[in-house]
Design goal:
The protein is about 45% helix and about 15% strand. The protein has about 260 residues and is an alpha/beta fold. The protein folds into 2 domains: about 150 residues, NAD(P)-binding Rossmann-like Domain (Rossmann fold); about 100 residues, Orthogonal Bundle (N-(1-d-carboxylethyl)-l-norvaline Dehydrogenase, domain 2). An 8-stranded mixed sheet has the order 3-2-1-4-5-6-7-8, with helices on one face.
């Protein structure tokens, strides 16, 4: 094995990201030696899926693995780093908003291995087109992550913690906020017994257009046109939904403001 190759990993976590990373790594010929999770139900299930070992004790981590992947929530990462004894192995977290210095001096070889995508357990994802953003405490560790990411995707980018945080913010707005708007739209039409399916061609066209041209240039609707009467009607029928009404008002103002900046 080449010194920069990662052939065995331990995954700490058993949620959406851990599930997809485990599947992708296994598919790339990398052995997942062990799953750690404090939740036996989730941990044992993922271990069975990947045909590997499971533990809920940090003192029983397999120290022979080449890499430890912290696929846990952002809030858990600092405590896990302090509680576990990783030794000289390379340890990385997969979070977009957590800086690399979270490892401090506790872990000698450490880094970040951030896949920019949205993950839902059970829904397959094509990793080959997902960008991975990597960072490491030293050149040897960075090269290991570069080689590993290259086995999963065509897009490997070295990025520092500050830029990655801004990227993560943009990703939350582009993905999570967009999905929430779809959920609100679904809620409104369902209340009037209108099928959400009727909106799907519009949603697909909106997303497709925003990907082939600047979203700013692609913006349409009453706010960008300054159609005050239509917006007033919409605000009126949202009287029973004050939170949605306020979102409508704020977003419409933001759209109009961006138009004036063009």
């Amino acid at each position: 094995m080449h010194q920069n190759d990662v052939s065995t990993v331990v995954i700490l976590g058993a949620g959406n990201v851990a599930w997809h990373m485990g599947q992708s790594l296994s598919g790339a010929g990398i052995q997942v030696k062990q799953i750690f999770s404090r939740n036996p139900k989730h941990g044992e299930y993922l271990a069975r899926e990947l045909k590997t070992a499971y533990t809920n004790r940090l003192d029983q981590l397999d120290k022979d693995a080449d890499l430890f992947l912290l696929a846990v929530s952002d809030e858990v990462i600092p405590a896990m780093i302090q509680q576990a004894q990783f030794g000289k192995q390379l340890v990385v977290h997969l979070a977009g908003s957590v800086p690399m210095n979270v490892f401090g001096s506790k872990v000698r070889n450490h880094g970040v291995f951030y896949p920019l995508s949205t993950f839902t357990k059970g829904k397959p994802v094509d990793f080959s087109d997902i960008p991975f953003f990597i960072e490491a405490s030293n050149e040897a560790s960075l090269e290991k992550l570069r080689v590993l990411a290259g086995r999963l995707t065509r897009k490997v980018i070295v990025m520092d913690s500050e830029k990655r945080l801004y990227l993560h913010l943009a990703a939350v707005i582009a993905s999570n906020f967009t999905n929430h708007m779809l959920a609100l739209a679904e809620k409104l039409v369902i209340e009037k017994n209108i099928s959400f399916d009727l909106l799907k061609p519009l949603i697909q066209e909106t997303v497709a257009k925003g990907l082939i041209m600047s979203p700013l240039q692609a913006q349409t609707g009453p706010a960008v046109r300054g159609n005050i009467k239509t917006m007033a009607k919409h605000l009126s029928i949202l009287e029973g939904h004050p939170e949605i009404q306020e979102l409508y008002r704020l977003i419409s103002e933001s759209i109009a403001s961006m138009k004036s900046e063009k």
